[in-house]
Amino acid sequence: MLEYLFKPASVAVIGASKNPTKLGSIVLKNIIHGGYKGHIYPINPKAEKVMGLQAVPSILDLDEVDLALIATPAKNVLETLARCVEAKVKTAVIFSSGFGELSEAGKKAEEELVSIARRGRLRFVGPNSVGVFSSSSNLHAMMPNIQIRRGHASLVSQSGNVGSQVLYRGSKLGIGFNMFVSSGNEADLHSEDYIRYFGQGQDTKVILSYVEGFGDGKKFLETAKETTMNTPIVTLKGGDTKAGADAVRSHTGALAGSIHVFNAALKQSGVTRAQTIEELLDFALAFNSNLYPKTKKIAVLTRGGGWGVIAADACEKAGLELPELPPEVITDLSTILPSYWNKRNPIDTVMASGFTLMTRIIDILGRWGDVDGLLILGGFGGYFAKIWNENKIEKVSRKMIELSGSKAIFSVSFTQNEDSRPIQRLRENNIPVYHDANRAIDAYSKLLEYREYLSAARISEGS
After folding, report:
1. Domain presence at residue 463
2. Is 435 helix (H, G, I), strand (E, B) or coil?
3. How far apart, in whole angstroms, are the C-alpha atoms of residue 444 and residue 228?
4. pLDDT by residue (tens digit) across 48-84?
5. Which domain-ending residue is among 75, 104, 131?
6. How would you write the pLDDT of the chain (463 residues) with one tens digit per residue?
7. Cβ neighbours, 10 Å, residue 54
8. In this structure, what is the dihedral angle of CA atoms 13, 9, 181, 234, given to the nearest 10 degrees?
């Protein structure tokens, strides 16, 4: 059924308006500008055309629409959904707020919505949703007008604002999105329904979720455990504290539950827990790379001793290993580095620079068979951009891309120039670029944790 939500052949906007300030106008405009190629039906009984499209007086005038977007006041939603059922609409998104997040009467109205939908086998998102996005359908059926980078992460968020921020900030960081749904109050469809659907497709490499509470926590965790056997899940949870739980009830009407129980259950289900939006995005970058190291052994390349010390601390805290350099690597690096280089891992080039030097160092480390990963600190902006210029830096990034076929390559750029062409090239080729060594190493370690979970789970299944 969710195929009709994310891959609809036809979309009806109920409440479509010529007034640019109205929700029905905003959603319709985003669908048109998003490039959706299916049939679009603006539902408006008082207009002949809306945004150049032929208006339709009622949903009852159409035959079996795949997706109805309900952008009407809350008081009209029950009647509108009943008409959708009569018109044999398959799925719907209810944008309207003022339901279970507001009052007991609102919760009863949600129950009535579900009862109406069940009569026609219609499934709906929300209420209190900001919409859905689907890359494969060019469907931008959303309230916020966000430029979304397309790719292989899929996101479900109970909060529309949090979900929108993850889409916006993630796109700026080079994370591409396959599907997104703002699940809202989850009167009908729940987070686990979307997670299951995301995990069944071939175009999603990592599933992201923001949750505040559960209708059925056991079902969520069972679905997560089943899904993580094939697709990693990263979850950020709101409502960890009493104050947060109280805020949850007034936001989506959900019950937050015990965070300690939740954390333990997530770990048993193979889900990676993020504590902040920054971590959610950091981990998404790592999993989206699809660069899974086989062991904990990593090499770190830095242009200054201080960053090497910080990286060494972070590696030990994250459970990573920094093996000693073998004699042949020391010999090869000594031919191109100053005589006083440290001859240890992390490898400090003592500010020796030059794009030819860097490509040779990366090439030497690429032949080091005892490490599965390489973290490169700096060299993509600021001082180096001035003395090398972007074309020369790009030659270094090409060498990194070439090496990423055999090692997990992570990079750190200490200047946050997201428009830098070398940084863009790295991200386009699934090499994560961070702006902090600690965050890069923490994200790298999550790949190992997930791989270890899979190995243990498969051994358990086989026993």
Report:
1. no
2. coil
3. 18
4. 999 999 999 999 999 989 999 999 999 999 999 999 9
5. 131
6. 999 999 999 999 999 999 999 999 999 999 999 999 999 999 999 999 999 999 999 999 999 899 999 999 999 999 999 999 999 999 999 999 888 788 888 899 999 999 999 999 999 999 999 999 999 999 999 999 999 999 999 999 999 999 999 999 999 988 999 999 999 999 999 999 999 999 998 899 999 999 998 888 899 999 999 999 999 999 999 866 555 445 444 444 444 456 777 788 898 999 999 999 999 999 999 999 888 999 999 999 998 889 999 999 999 999 999 999 999 999 999 999 999 999 999 999 887 766 778 889 999 999 999 999 999 998 655 444 554 556 677 778 888 898 888 899 999 987 766 667 778 888 888 899 999 999 999 999 999 999 999 999 988 776 4
7. 11
8. -170
Specify the CATH number for the domain of residue 104: 3.40.50.720
Q: How many Cβ atoms sit within 10 Å of the Cβ of residue 83?
A: 18
Both 261 and 295 in one domain: the answer is no
The order of strands in the sheet holding 39-43 is 39-43, 10-14, 67-70, 91-94, 123-125
SS3 content of the chain, % helix, strand, coil (to 5): 45, 20, 40
441, amino acid identity: I
What distance in Å separates the CA atoms of residue 266 and residue 232, rounded to the nearest whole number? 12
CATH of residue 199's domain is 3.40.50.261
The residues, ordered by sequence, that sit 6+ positions from 345 with a Cβ below 8 Å of its Cβ are 299, 300, 322, 323, 324, 325
* Structural domain includes residue 346: yes
Tokens of 317: 């805290």
The two most distant CA atoms of the chain are separated, in Å, by: 81
Structure tokens at 98: 């003022």
Give me the residues paired with residue 210 across strands.
157, 236
**Token pair for 243:** 């104050």
Pairing of strands 91-94, 123-125: parallel
Give the C-alpha separation, 77 to 79, whole Å.
6
CA distance 116 to 340: 76
273 in any annotated domain: yes
What is the Cα–Cα distance from 440 to 370, expressed in whole angstroms? 21
Whether 53 and 184 map to the same domain: the answer is no
Paired tokens of 86: 């009569």
Q: Which long-range CB contacts under 8 A does 306-309 form with residues at least 24 apart?
A: 307/346, 307/377, 307/378, 307/437, 308/342, 308/346, 308/347, 308/348, 308/377
